[in-house]
From TrEMBL:
Organism, scientific name: Pseudonocardia acidicola
SMART domains the UniProt entry points to: FCD, HTH_GNTR
InterPro entries: GntR_C, TF_FadR/GntR_C, Tscrpt_reg_HTH_GntR, WH-like_DNA-bd_sf, WH_DNA-bd_sf
CDD domains found in the cross-reference section: WHTH_GntR
Superkingdom of the source species: Bacteria
PANTHER family named among the record's database cross-references: REGULATORY PROTEIN GNTR HTH, TRANSCRIPTIONAL REGULATOR, GNTR FAMILY
Domain HTH gntR-type: 21-89
Pfam families attached to this UniProt entry: FCD, GntR
Protein name: FadR family transcriptional regulator
Keyword Amino-acid biosynthesis appears in the UniProt entry: no
Keywords, alphabetical: DNA-binding, Transcription, Transcription regulation
Amino acid sequence: MLGCLPVLRRCAVALSAVRAGRVCDEVLAQLEALIASGEWPVGSKIPPEPELVAALGVGRNTVREAVRALEHAGLLEPRRGDGTYVRATSDLGAALLRRARRCTALDVLDVRAGLERDAAATAALRRTDADVAAIQAAAAARRAAAAAGDRDAFVSADLAFHQAVVAATGNGVLVELYAGLTEALRHSVTTTDDLDDDPASFPGHEELATAIADRDPDAARAAVDSYLAAARSLVAPEGTR
């Protein structure tokens, strides 16, 4: 999780004074952009109100109204006595996160299966050299985090790997939908991937990277089936999978 001070340093550059008129709408748009772009990552603490007021050149009530709107939308989460934190990157992500918290890990795995199997096959057919490099870099980060025993870094790298695969499809709608699932997927990955079980060798991920590089859609689908089957074995009792 990022501390407040690093976020503040970026905030001074990323935010700009707003014009007169629909002030709150413009403030809201700037804050949403910082969240959507990852400048304010999920889990990070946003700058305190006085800093936002100074950077935006607006009144406290305007900032409070914009922040409150984002809280109602589920993008921000106030924590009493601590501050306000980024909870999701979009309205869709917030809605999916709320829904994911009311369902089982198996439900999320079912959704992943539907999206990731076809995405993997499409990525194998459409991928560029840059896509392959991004997938391999994420796979390497995943291995490094596992070797270091850093669970948080591993989960982030694992999600980055799957997002890189989806990005290789070149389908903007699918990329946006999958981005909205990120928070629910983080919950799923945290539930199903256990560092004690050596996730570096968790079946399917390295094979998927190779299949996409080799432009082999059948092998890509098989790789997805492999890691999802392993995930199911961790969260579902025998006979319920």
